Amino acid sequence: MYQIVQKEQFSENVVKLVVHAPRIARSRKPGHFIILRIDEKGERIPLTIAEANIEAGTITLVVQNVGVSSKRLCAMNVGDQILDLVGPLGKATHISEVGTVLACGGGVGIAPLLPIVEGFKKAGNRVVTVLAARTKELIILEKEIRQWSDEVIIMTDDGSYGTKGLVTQGAEEIIKREKVDECVTIGPAVMMKFVALLTQKYEIPTQASLNAIMVDGTGMCGACRASVGGQTKFTCIDGPEFNAHQIDFDELILRLGGYKAEEKQAWERANS
Amino acid sequence: MKEYLKIERDQEWRDQLRKKIKNKERTTQERVSMTSLDPMERIKYQDREVNLGLNMEQAQREASRCMDCVNPTCIEGCPVSINIPKFIKNIERGEVLEAAKTLKETSALPAVCGRVCPQEKQCEAQCFYTLKLKKEPVAIGYLERFAADFEQQSGAVSVPETAPKKQVKVAAIGSGPASLSFAGDMIKLGYDVTVFEALHEVGGVLKYGIPEFRLPNHVVDVELESLAKMGVKFERNFIVGRTASFDDLKAEGYQAFFVASGAGLPRFMNIPGENYNGILSSNEYLTRVNLMNAAKEEFDTPVLKGQNVAVIGGGNTAMDSVRTAKRLGAERAMIIYRRSREEMPARVEEVLHAEEEGIEFLNLNNPVEYFADENGRVSKMRVQRMELGEPDASGRRRPVVVEGSEYDIPVDVVVVAIGVSPNPLVPSELPELKVSRWGTIEVDPETMQSSKPELFAGGDIVRGGATVILAMGDGRKAAAGMHKYLSQKNETAAN
């Protein structure tokens, strides 16, 4: 059992949970994710680790309420126990000193971006981060991101915070202004697709972290397969980060909707 | 071994029993047949076991067919060397609990093996009836299941004796049949054994893979409880090499490791359209249904229920998948297999059961491309017909494409069950470990020791995809190998 020791409501549908998992807190690296199962009836839910505290033995997860399972998870409170939690899974982000790193995070994708930004900064890079969301309240972890970024640019669709516009506008401004050596992007698949198209234009090596449908997360099921450079890869063990210029984002977007009908049915059952 | 078998065979009760019925009478009896649920009834339930087992009378009669040979060749066919005549003769004399004990001397999972072992290729293939009399062999598998079930149902489940505790910690990685068999032997030898499992449930392929209609979960659970009673510890949600490193565990006192992490990586055909929605691996399909209970409404995990389901492959996993599809309500549940029925690797019994349940077999057919609707959901598959050519490396006739024979089949779910590759998750954490170019761990075939002396391996991570019982045989060998290694090492250390 894994106890929730802290909870923070970021916005109506986004929640931060700090969970007691001492072994994982010690062994995780930027880019790693975990899989949890709330209870006997629950799904196995993959979530990227946003932060870890070795002394306290905790890891931080950010959950967005998008369906039956995440709704149940978001409704859990401090003191509640998560039945199963396994990790760290996936390949850690390849972090090295490259010069200037442009980090683009969208919505809850900002959470997994945080340890990567931290990693690149600690490795001696100049880090410029662009955070984007629909509206002000969906910009999360801004303070933490600022701690590890030389500069932070905020973009919102409705202009309620920072500059009105998309993540790509903010990113292109930076690219035009200074030499960017590497880009990392995490967020909705559509967002990453356009960041990849942008950086491809400027020939900037770019890593994107995929959030695929998974069951076991250990290479067993292949639900998370994605086409990268014309080859089928498993997000859970070959990823979750891939060369963004080689990812078939259109296929990924279709695959993310693979259980839409079933999810809708479950949602209706749960809310009837 | 020979010595032990002779001592057991010379026991007075065995001698008496042999004299009780004339051999001629024994051999003229017909082999018992297994009763099974009505096919049209059973396809309504994912969790009703198809085979119903023998009753006491059937079992004793079948047991009396066994001639208690001087040289029991059947045992040579058993990867875990069960003393087959001893357990069968115990059934014949009505001492079924003794029979169960005999099974547990060498097998950690008798109720499982009695159900899923390919006995027709192993013990029963080496039976005197098969070899010499050219008759149907003694139904060793049915009898094994009978004895194990009898004990489970009696409530008097025996716990094998264990040697005095050694205070030596060893780890088994993965909790499938190889690991459980290893753990059973090591705990008997007095080691402090912990089994580490990545998933939330222990049992490996026995739980996530094999469906309940063939192997009910409660049967596996009783065997797991037996191991727990003997002192085996289970750690779920734990990936050795990740959750904690091998070095961390060594620092915590683990002196040796048995890696049995399985061949969990599903293979795909890499043909156009294979990543459309609705096309999934048998591992995914079976895991959703078996491990996650996706077919039951009260569970959160979804599963795609197709009307026209095609399963690619001809092995046991393909049969499990296609029969699951039928149970989930498919109108048309099809096997697409590139060779003929003759070459199918699936057990004959599974193929027969599938046929009874109305599964369509499109043998000598091979998929070449998939097509999808506007949402990216598979809608049809293109297959080509095959014919059989010359035998290939496996000894089976090679399937050859019939040119210009392509045609389309409407499908809404496709399950790819063409085999698995070794799971790289654990080996990748040990860069200095010697692995083959297929990703399997290289070991000494006798001791199962790898290139790292404290690391042993067995099951599908070594074989690349085999059976429950071969994995169990590896577990036993590794236990013997590790015991020898640790005894020598700790003796040297003491001197």
From TrEMBL, chain A:
All residue ranges annotated as the FAD-binding FR-type domain in the record: 1-95
One annotated GO biological process: pyrimidine nucleotide biosynthetic process
Record keywords: 2Fe-2S, FAD, Flavoprotein, Iron, Iron-sulfur, Metal-binding
Binding residues for [2Fe-2S] cluster: C221, C224, C236
SUPFAM superfamilies in the record: Ferredoxin reductase-like, C-terminal NADP-linked domain (SSF52343), Riboflavin synthase domain-like (SSF63380)
PROSITE patterns: FAD_FR
Binding-site list for FAD: V62, V63, Q64
Cofactor note: Binds 1 FAD per subunit. Binds 1 [2Fe-2S] cluster per subunit.
Any Pfam family matching the protein: FAD_binding_6
Name of the protein described by the UniProt record: Ferredoxin--NADP+ reductase
InterPro entries: Cbr1-like_FAD-bd_dom, Cyt_c3_hydrogenase_gsu, Dihydroorotate_DH_Fe-S-bd, FAD-bd_FR_type, FNR_nucleotide-bd, PyrK_electron_transfer, Riboflavin_synthase-like_b-brl
GO molecular function: 2 iron, 2 sulfur cluster binding; flavin adenine dinucleotide binding; metal ion binding; oxidoreductase activity
Cofactor(s) listed in the protein's UniProt record: FAD; [2Fe-2S] cluster
UniProtKB/TrEMBL annotation, chain B:
Pfam families named in the record: Fer4_20, Pyr_redox_2
Start and end residues of each Dihydroprymidine dehydrogenase domain: 48-154
Residue ranges of domain FAD/NAD(P)-binding in the record: 169-475
InterPro entries: DPD_II, FAD/NAD-bd_sf, FAD/NAD-binding_dom, Helical_ferredxn, SudA-like
GO molecular function (one): iron-sulfur cluster binding
Protein name in UniProt: Glutamate synthase (NADPH/NADH) small chain
Organism: Sunxiuqinia elliptica
